[in-house]
Write a structure and sequence with these properties.
This protein is an alpha/beta fold. It has a single domain, classed as FAD/NAD(P)-binding domain, CATH 3.50.50.60. 25% of the residues lie in helices and 18% in strands. It contains eleven helices and 16 strands. The strands form three sheets. Strands 1, 2, 5, 6, 7, 8 and 16 form a seven-stranded mixed sheet that branches. The protein has a six-stranded antiparallel sheet with strand order 4-10-11-12-9-15, with helices on one face. α1 runs parallel beside α6 and α8 packs across α9. 54% of the residues are buried.
Length: 536
């Protein structure tokens, strides 16, 4: 329990999936935990009502934040001025500030990294290695899968080579895979004939009732919100942490980490209330588990953990292209979850010495809204309009590519000199460039799109092969490494500069791979929490 000299044993900044999991683990062990969340708590039913009123993603230009609260003290990422872009590629991920964080509106992909993803520099001569291995993280991967209720295929080769089950696992997935929809099955069969391997996507949707969550019934709006809570969202473990004894402080905007006189420790954290009052809290250890953009912002505001000059640098994502087609047969997309599988042929192989790995994510969205807009813009009206919508919607098929980037210190977050928040503190400026390694992968994606269109006998609806679209997978901004001269944290997630300051965010990841970073970030966070538990 907390020493009377401290407000808590551990203060966790951020109540998203990583912060919630870590706080829950610590609270279960009897630690006194305070969670600081910048935004409010909103029940699911209110968010579902908001989605029904104004949350259609197509109608909102792809804005998944539209259904969610944005407050002057806790703005979502699309708020004007929150992020300014200065680089050749725009970068504004869809971030939320509320209890549970951004996994309220994610697609639910729950990938492990491959063993080779931890050794990119050693094996392929590019990028950086993790300062830990797949084997180091494997027990925490499984713990994450159990806690989040992740569904996966134990027989799948997730390397994309269409071979034996891989990567190695100590235990089976805790939930069985969903049956493939008709759309997924037909897409898989037609791609297989041309040598492309469609693989079931591990995901955070309950196939059977699990941990007070109902089974998925295929509402097809997992993103921007699962209406029944079958899909995992970070509020689950934020609530579990409270039930285990953690104290949640909502609308508490952390803005300063206070250092000891010698700088070796953090002695307090300061947060603002919506009314502008400043509150100081002390703890034996501090775990910053905010978003991969907000974590470096807090460190920069605090002049903390940055002796290497790497705070905010090495921003990576999976930005790439997309294509939407009308196949030559009815596929009936829009039944079941919004995404169910991927084409992984380019996930790992010797080409990673030359260009980034590639993951083609296969969408299962209903195309009715976009198709209706297209036809009405063409002047189509009358009885034939409905028939044409039905005809095209049955044949609607979409994929979007995710490519691997390399860490580049010039891709960075700095404090804005133009925009300030309501407390007078600088917002963020981002310089982002996909880079030559990623762009070479983009050329391969273009070639694949030509083949996909031929395989499906498809007419083109839309294709973007010029602008690198945001994938909302930020990494690298508080990078992990073996050398304090070029990294922010060590393999434990402990900052090199402050012995009791730990970071648990996808921002610690030094290599991007090509899969969603959520589960790897969560597994690293649970490992860090286990280390804190032994010391506090």
């Amino acid at each position: 329990m907390a020493n009377s000299d401290y407000d808590a044993d551990v203060i966790v900044v951020g109540s998203g999936v990583i912060g919630g999991l870590a706080a829950h683990r610590l609270a279960k062990q009897g630690k006194s935990v305070i969670i600081l969340e910048a935004g409010p708590r909103v029940p699911r039913w209110k968010l579902v009502e908001s989605f029904r009123v104004n949350g259609n993603v197509s109608a909102n230009g792809g804005n998944r934040n539209a259904s969610y609260p944005t407050q002057p003290w806790a703005p979502t990422s699309y708020t004007p001025g929150y992020i300014e872009n200065t680089g050749p590629d725009s970068y504004v991920p869809g971030m939320l500030k509320m209890v549970g964080g951004t996994t309220w509106h994610w697609g639910g992909s729950c990938w492990r990294n491959l063993p080779n993803d931890f050794k990119l520099k050693s094996i392929y001569g590019v990028g950086r290695d993790f300062p830990l291995t797949y084997d180091d993280l494997e027990p925490y991967y499984y713990e994450t899968e159990v806690e989040m209720g992740i569904s996966g295929d134990d027989k799948a080769d997730y390397s994309g080579k269409n071979g034996a089950p891989y990567p190695p696992r100590s235990h089976p997935f805790p939930i069985r895979p969903q049956a493939l929809s008709y759309y997924s099955q037909r897409f898989k069969d037609r791609m297989a004939a041309a040598g492309y391997h469609y693989t079931y996507q591990p995901n955070g949707r309950a196939t059977d009732p699990y941990d007070d969550r109902p089974a998925c019934v295929g509402n097809n709006n997992c993103s921007p919100i699962c209406p029944i809570g079958a899909q995992y969202s970070g509020d689950r473990h934020a609530t579990k942490a409270e039930q285990a004894g953690a104290k949640m402080l909502t609308n508490a905007v952390a803005y300063k980490l206070e250092k000891s006189a010698d700088g070796r420790k953090i002695v307090a954290i300061h947060y603002h209330t919506p009314e502008g009052r400043s509150v100081r809290l002390t703890a034996r250890a501090f775990l910053v588990a905010a978003h991969a953009l907000e974590t470096p912002r807090l460190l920069l505001l605090s002049d903390a953990a940055n002796s290497s000059g790497m705070v905010g640098r090495n921003l990576m994502d999976h930005n790439c292209f997309s294509i939407t087609m009308f196949a030559d047969e009815p596929l009936w997309s829009g039944r079941g979850p919004v995404q169910q599988g991927d084409v992984l042929n380019w996930r790992d192989g010797p080409w990673r010495s030359e260009h980034g790995a590639i993951r083609h994510e296969v969408g299962n969205h209903a195309g009715n809204v976009a198709i209706t807009e297209m036809l009405m813009n063409e002047g189509r009206i009358g009885p034939g309009l409905d028939a044409e919508i039905r005809h095209l919607a049955a044949r609607y098929a979409s994929t979007w590519a995710n490519i691997e980037m390399l860490p580049d210190p010039s891709n960075r977050i700095t404090l804005s000199t133009k925009h300030k928040d309501m407390f007078g503190l600088p917002m963020m400026s981002i310089h982002f460039d996909v880079g030559s390694y990623g762009r070479r992968a983009g050329e391969v994606v273009k070639q694949d799109y030509e083949k996909f269109q031929k395989i499906l006998g498809a007419k083109l609806f839309s294709k973007n092969i010029t602008e690198y679209e945001n994938r909302d997978h930020p990494m690298g901004t508080v990078i992990m490494g073996d050398d304090p001269r070029d990294s922010v944290v060590n393999h434990e997630g402990r900052t090199w500069d402050h012995e009791n300051l730990f970071l648990a965010t996808t921002g610690v990841m030094p290599a991007a791979s090509t899969n969603n970073p959520t589960v790897t970030g969560a597994a690293i966070g649970l490992r860090t929490a286990a280390i804190i538990d032994k010391e506090v």
